[in-house]
């Protein structure tokens, strides 16, 4: 199953076991969900459901993963079971919480998980049916897992991998943030020494849809030529990094490791070197 699904393909899916998740973020996001969402979609919150935000981002970053048991409880509340076919969307071309949800569901062990290509806006353009208000659905039985099943890297592991030259660390933030020209979210501009910059936006075409798998594969093969095959992906807080992980999987690569803490952790951790290109 492709990790990406188009609006036209979504419209043809059987409704049995189908679960749509609205993962939009921002101010008044739940009110926006109630005002308009794809018919049947259930709301999932980045800050409350997809992260366990702590007091000090120097240890874990701005969006550390929640305990897996807490996430399992949320899936039960959303009516998600091992039989579910889950399609997630946001309004950032899948580049924000939709990709994070996809990664977490795959890391939880669920198989039928896809991100809607082009997200909310593309669904509107393609005349997908929308609705408003609350959606009625039943809870599912709790799925029990003890550990995340996909690779996760810690700050210390990222540092050691770079020192030893065993991994390629990819920073998917915009180039101006990587170069250290300015930083709109975190406290310090710059990047992890040794990390390379491939902005997640380059995974998309001019319409905000994912590039075709063969184009993505050709692009990343060229960019990673001569570099260690083991990949660690990071961004600002472990959210948009999942967009590039999704793109790499879509292109046929093995799912790489996610550095969840990302720049928000590294840049706050005392004693860590910060590189700039200005």
Automatic annotation (TrEMBL):
InterPro entries: Rhodanese-like_dom, Rhodanese-like_dom_sf, TST/MPST-like. It comes from the Bacteria. GO terms for molecular function: thiosulfate-cyanide sulfurtransferase activity. Pfam families: Rhodanese (PF00581). Residues 14-132, 163-275 form the Rhodanese domain. The keyword Repeat applies. SUPFAM superfamilies: Rhodanese/Cell cycle control phosphatase. This is Thiosulfate/3-mercaptopyruvate sulfurtransferase.
